Amino acid sequence: MTTTDADTTGRTAAAAADHSSQPENDPRGTTRTVTDTAETSPAHGVHGYAQQKDAHLKRLRRIEGQIRGLQRMLEEDVYCIDILTQVSASTKGLQSFGLQLLEEHLRHCVADAAVKGPEAIDAKVQEATKAIERMLRS
């Protein structure tokens, strides 16, 4: 599930074009520094998921529907175990989406770095490793 940190922070396109390090708050409330460079934020349309974008959007809409279903279940006072079953299904859907996106990142971005040389490969492998670590913590 690897969009760049800049993609998930909701920054404007103008802010994303600024290639300086900027402190930002992550969803857990801690501050971190995000550095936008051409290597961490490739130009629009060159991401590994570009060819599957429509399928990914369809999948995310389905997951979004599951989350809305959870809200309705709470509003309707549905039995706890039934809600937990839906939470599990939603979580598995997001994990599966994340793994697919990670695979596409490895096939596209890491493979592209292989052409650029050992330093680029190391940077992309480290980036992917950190993404995997984040996925495993969730």
TrEMBL record:
Family classification: Belongs to the CsoR family.
Keywords noted in UniProt: Copper
Gene3D superfamilies: Metal-sensitive repressor, helix protomer
Source species of the chain: Streptomyces endophytica
Species classification: Bacteria, Bacillati, Actinomycetota, Actinomycetes, Kitasatosporales
UniProt feature, compositional bias: Polar residues: 19-40
Region (Disordered): 1-55
Full protein name: Metal-sensitive transcriptional regulator
Biased composition range(s): Low complexity: 1-18
Annotated PANTHER family: COPPER-SENSING TRANSCRIPTIONAL REPRESSOR RICR, TRANSCRIPTIONAL REPRESSOR FRMR-RELATED
Pfam families found in the cross-reference section: Trns_repr_metal (PF02583)
Superkingdom of this protein's organism: Bacteria
